[in-house]
Amino acid sequence: MSDPADLTIVEAAAALRSEDLTAVELLAAVRRRAAMTEANIHAYLTIDVEGAEASARAADDAFAGGEDRGPLQGIPIALKDNMVTRGLETTASSQILAGWHPPYDATVVTRLRDAGAVIVGKTNLDEFAMGSSTENSAYGTSRNPWDPERVPGGSSGGSAAAVAVGSALAALGSDTGGSVRQPASLCGVVGMKPTYGLVSRYGLIAFASSLDQIGPITRSVADALAVLQGISGHDPEDATSYRGELPDFGSQIDRGVEGLKIGVVSELSGEGTEPAVAAEFRTMLQRLEGAGAEIKELSLPSTAYALSAYYLIAPAECSANLARFDGVRFGLRLDGGTVEEMMGATRAAGFGPEVIRRILLGTYALSAGYYDAFYGQAQKVRTLVIDDFKQAYEQADVLVTPTSPTTAFKVGERTDDPLAMYLSDLCTIPSNLSGDPGISVPTGVDDAGLPIGFQVLAPALAEPLMFRVAQAVEDLAGFDARPTLASSEGAA
After folding, report:
1. Per-residue pLDDT tens over the stretch 228-241
2. 433 assigned to some structural domain
3. What's the pLDDT tens digit per position in 381-426?
4. Helix, strand, coil abundance in the chain, percent, nearest 5
5. Across the chain, what does the average pLDDT equal?
6. What's the total number of domains in the chain?
7. Burial degree of 159 (CB within 10 A; 0-12, 13-18, 19+)
8. Is the CA virtual torsion 11, 15, 18, 22 positive or negative?
9. pLDDT per position as a tens digit, 78-137
10. Alpha-carbon span 392 to 263, nearest angstrom
11. Do the domain assignments include residue 186?
């Protein structure tokens, strides 16, 4: 067998059940890979050595006893460090939560544990998930495995990098404006955002509650399906959790695209897209057409304003959500002569510049005299986006765009230009505003050898159809390249 750290979940699950591999051996392989790569990549903030080993042994014992909890049993999975884990430090990459050990698990963590998965550790992110490059972390920048001089995307950059290098077979990220799909695209892996409410947000440290959704980052479409099946479902602890019957996510995955109408969003696939990304996108459209799909160009006029609306709604919600970090109940606390001075000193020291920027922007947008002009207007644009998507799905079964307008950019290239950074999420933000699912599938590389992602969008709860098209894209692309890294043995 090749290095187990290079397996997909589907392949590893088969090896575990055929007794060609044990969960302990699989965990050892991904930890060796972390030791080789962490000094260069910095995907992790915490690696849970004892907890992971105990979970791997428990998975092997369960297999030996004839107990099979499903495809995630014994699979090493990483968690973005904005999902709380009982007894394991959870920081959201912020100084204000340094040293905080939660007293409970997020619902997705509980579900992974119940499925027999092995939690490898907690991955790096932009502080409180605010960013597109993982450069905003208080604990150092993560790097792109394909070129460590470049960013892995964000805010789930650590999760995407870990899966790309094999220091986890899968990871969970959170997607508020593309923070699962964009880093997946830049790192050459699969990233999926479920329909809003399909996966519980209980225990996810909130950024923007009406936009946040947890999703899987994996090496294949089938792996993303397996993880989604393991973490989705109603949760009474989350008031926004979907209460209806779940669709059979994999029911259409092998049907191909013949007879489907695939809509190309003109506003999200033209101006501003790098030539190599545009060329790869057109190539995949031709392949889909050759496989029997009908390609239709559609217009979603309101998406021209989606970015502006998002950067009013998301900061407004973050301003309210982050008010809880005040130095009183948990986390960092600095001394002050009065309670107000203590809170001010704590927040000024604990939050990084991007978080402060967004809190100030959101507070301003919600302030008296500006609420209707900014936040209220942004919500009206959101309604227009939702209506545009509904009309588009009357003309096409799914919509497609490039996942990111560019491939991975260099570390430091956009840190002094917030607008250029925000444009990284141009193609992904609209579906967060609408609440619909989306998935990024790697299809090729540019002239510099950097991965390019292809995004498939579908109506709410149409994950079976989305997986069907995504699987066809993966099959047609035949993308199986992996990054090559210089060894940094002993780093983790």
Report:
1. 999 999 999 999 99
2. no
3. 999 999 999 999 999 999 999 999 999 999 999 988 887 888 889 9
4. 40, 15, 45
5. 96
6. 1
7. buried
8. negative
9. 999 999 999 999 999 999 999 999 999 999 999 999 999 999 999 999 999 999 999 999
10. 8
11. yes
Angle (CA) 235-239-241 rounded to 5° is: 45
Task: Please give the angle made by the CA atoms of 356, 134 and 269, to the nearest 5 degrees.
Answer: 100
Domain of residue 110: give its range: 4-254
Q: What is the pLDDT of residue 396?
A: 98
Cβ atoms of 227 and 170 closer than 8 Å: yes
Higher pLDDT, 141 or 271: 141
Q: CATH number, domain at 86?
A: 3.90.1300.10
Residue matched to tokens 């007293």? 103
Amino acid at 476: L
- Does residue 350 fall inside a structural domain? no
> Within a domain: residue 70?
yes
Buried b (16+ CB within 10 A) or exposed e, 416-447: eeeeebbbbbbbbbbbbbbbbbbbbbbbbbbe
With bands split at pLDDT 50, 70 and 90, how would you rate the model's confidence at 138? very high
Task: Cite the active site residues.
Answer: 80, 155, 179
* CA of residue 124 relative to chain centroid, distance: 12
Q: Cα torsion for 484, 73, 83, 429, to the nearest 10°?
A: 60
